[in-house]
Amino acid sequence: MKALNKKNISTIISASWIFTSDLESQLLSDYSVVIDNDKIIDLLPQSKVFNEYEAHDTYQLTDHILIPGLINTHAHAAMSLFKSFADDLPLHDWLNNHIWPAEKEFVSPSFVKDGSILALSEMIKSGITTFNDMYFYPNETAEAAKELGVRGNIGLVVLNFPTNYATDPEDYLLKGFGFRDKWRNEELITTSIAPHAPYSVSDEAFTMINTYSEELRISIHTHLHETKWEIEDSIGKYGMTPVQRLNNLGIIGPSLMAAHCVHCNDQDMAILAKNKVSIIHNPSSNMKLGSGIADVARMLEQSLNVCLGTDSSASNNRLDILEEMRLAALLIKGSTNLPESMPIKEAIKMATINGAKALGLDGIIGSIEKNKKADLVAIDLSKIENQPIYDPLSTLVYSSSRSDVNYVWINGKLKLKDKKLVQINEEEIIQLAKKWQIKLKKI
Amino acid sequence: MKALNKKNISTIISASWIFTSDLESQLLSDYSVVIDNDKIIDLLPQSKVFNEYEAHDTYQLTDHILIPGLINTHAHAAMSLFKSFADDLPLHDWLNNHIWPAEKEFVSPSFVKDGSILALSEMIKSGITTFNDMYFYPNETAEAAKELGVRGNIGLVVLNFPTNYATDPEDYLLKGFGFRDKWRNEELITTSIAPHAPYSVSDEAFTMINTYSEELRISIHTHLHETKWEIEDSIGKYGMTPVQRLNNLGIIGPSLMAAHCVHCNDQDMAILAKNKVSIIHNPSSNMKLGSGIADVARMLEQSLNVCLGTDSSASNNRLDILEEMRLAALLIKGSTNLPESMPIKEAIKMATINGAKALGLDGIIGSIEKNKKADLVAIDLSKIENQPIYDPLSTLVYSSSRSDVNYVWINGKLKLKDKKLVQINEEEIIQLAKKWQIKLKKI
Which residues constitute the domain of residue B15? Predict the structure, then answer.
């Protein structure tokens, strides 16, 4: 008669290992996560789970590690259509002669929709369940996120120069807020104001953005101190670094997500730390564009919240947070000469809960805990490449790859099953990419 | 009657793209490689190949890029059994309290045989067709290479302290030459003398090694300038850097393969360049152990031959030359702030022909050319993660992963087919690893 007392719920996922990524950073062996609808409602040993719950779907994942969904905290999803379009060029040649002309000719709502669909397909296959985006035509990026069921924080981009999308800061903001109002009731979509960068946004526009950010309690996502050029340019024009300038304008604060911060002097770093800014580390992109290697050791010393981003496919060529996590863990050791820098659990936290904190979403995602949303990734560690396994967290960070990502759930819904996208025809997405490839190759 | 004139040969491999990695660095579209027995005998357009040749086996590889087999120029294969055994520890703690005690307790012929089988299985799956090894019990590593049909240059390791394998430099050399004599007629096996490192080998032993190297025309493989500690230690003991000391001892020359060279002053670099040493760059291992980031830009400026190594699974955790290639291409840009550093083709050459040059095997491997051995890798670029493809070489270096390695041939023989090892039961290899995992976990 015991069965009568069992609670009927949606899903039970049992895995050999579960890393919670919560405050206690627990690695649990032979545990189960219990999901009802969109939420995690329990976390208990496999030996007990079937006494208490009756699930519609059950997954028994031997040799898998279950982790919170990976968070890609700096993306320009639609730019996936520029992957391998132009590489290894000096920054100004790359922008002036390749990326910007191509954007001028091709970027449109359909480009953004299709590019975002491609990017989000790649992200799901890489175990990414939340992305923080900044690009033109946010409506189309949000539509792609909705179609694929990916959690997205979409930037309301602001620039001081005209593009196909908008003409001036007022126009960008008008369009951005129009988009925000339209999508405000969509569960998976949130927004930030996204002034592109200190060198492309005026003081007046930043002041306006600051007012909106405070009034609407909306976070800000920007590029900051990505290159040495940008800092020299700011010192030349404003007599101070971009961090100092933005601090004067009120932009530097706990609701700021600052992508890159590759080059910061002590004063800049102190301003960022004092104001509890979240820093988005993009190791692949920073290296590929020749921007440099961010001093993450110093950021961690100052207790800054550091999370991870891929940046766009034009400057990284893979939307793969597992790879950025491994790189972050390696680069800090190579730069400091201290192999004990960034222990494995800290690297995993950068890819999960720290991203959630940056986005202000750590109340609902970023860790495996009761009452959080069921954004989960199961990674299969059974392959030859991952053997032997003395420490599954080491295997996860240093040996496994996105090709081991076997199952992905977002908001309780299955998105990847046996490495295949659910309810999406992968061949159609490949054809979508090829269609644009043929168009863009002509220029 | 035309068919009567066709030449009967072993294998035709047709691929969408072929990168030759020879002097001309050609990227050929819709070409075929013609193999007879162990050799490449022709390279011609797909449209012509079937008029001239009749093959026993044909492969029509749409969306694949065919490249020369990847060369892993610095490995300690057997140490795969230590993968994830101890990570992120200060070097001396790691060696003294973890790796060396485990080696003392467990390293034996069967450990080396099984560890090498595991490592070489991983390497084949990662597109590696040649490995340059240094460890104890070379006979067992060679046996593993022979069983799996992987091309191996096996080091005759020399140390000044006793291990399970040998007692003193004379004993190491005696055992090494015994091994060399036994295996001298084995086609896939070559040897180097492998003095472990300047800090673990005496002047007397290096002098002896130098004599043997010259008399037998055998190359030398050693660790050199891996850590700052090693250099300071040498200056303290010998009044000079290890490079300067080895130069005085006659070891520095064109037949030297020097692994790491992370820290070199101008004088060291000049000595290495003047003597045409081959440098083996191990970016993941150097970062993970906190050794540092090698100044590859300076090496390339001095026209040094730079090739790539994984180092062992104890300090890298993946035997993946595609990953080292991507890292090398990114790190040089991040370090120099020049995105144009190391163009894509140069990165691929580091992973192929440069390794062959280091090993003195560039007459038979390292590029796709007539009369070279058929060591080939076909990488499938059809997945969503690799789309779109404006430049297949960019896709190869920046977007693809070892999980895209679909076919591998070594010496004309198929070793990997549809991502599965041929004639090897992968499950048995996983069980082999697990057997040792259980043993080692007890300590």
Answer: 2-68+370-411
Query: Is B365 contained in some domain?
Result: no
Q: Are residues A227 and A108 in the same domain?
A: yes
- Mean pLDDT score across all residues of chain B: 97
B353: domain CATH number is 3.20.20.140
Size of the A and B interface in Cβ pairs below 8 Å: 216
Number of domains in chain B: 2
Alpha helices by DSSP H, B18-99: 46-52, 91-94
Domain final residue pick, A335, A358, A381: A358
R_g of chain A, CA atoms, integer Å: 22
DSSP B267-317: HHHHHHHHTTPEEEE-HHHHHHTT-----HHHHHHTT-EEEE----TTTSS
Average pLDDT over residues A249-272: 98
Give yes or no for residue B442 having a pLDDT over 80: no
- Using one digit for the tens of pLDDT, what is the confidence trace for A164-218? 999 999 999 999 999 999 999 999 999 999 999 999 999 999 999 999 999 999 9
Nearest CA-CA distance, residue A185 and chain B, Å:
31
* Interval B339-351 mean pLDDT: 97
Assess whether pLDDT exceeds 80 at residue A1: no
Residue A237 near chain B (CB below 8 Å): no
Put simply, the chain A residues between 153 and 192 with a CB less than 8 A from any chain B CB are none
Closest Cβ–Cβ partner in A122, A288, A331 for B287: A331
Nearest Cα of chain B lies from the Cα of A259 at a distance, in angstroms, of 16
Whether omega before B45 lies within 30 degrees of 0, making that bond cis, reads: no
Q: How confident is the model at residue B1 (pLDDT cuts 50, 70, 90)?
A: very low
The domain boundary, picked from B297, B326, B358, lies at B358
Q: Does B443 touch chain A (CB under 8 A)?
A: no
Residue indicated by tokens 């800049």: A268
pLDDT band at B92 (very low <50, low <70, confident <90, very high): confident
**Residue from B331, B337, B344 nearest B400 by CA:** B344
The answer on A389 and A327 residing in a single domain is: no
Tell me: do A64 and A79 sit in the same domain.
Answer: no
In contact, A18 and A31? CB cutoff 8 Å: yes
Interface subset of A 198-217, CB within 8 angstroms of B:
none
CB contacts under 8 A, A 327-366 vs B, are 327, 330-331, 333-344
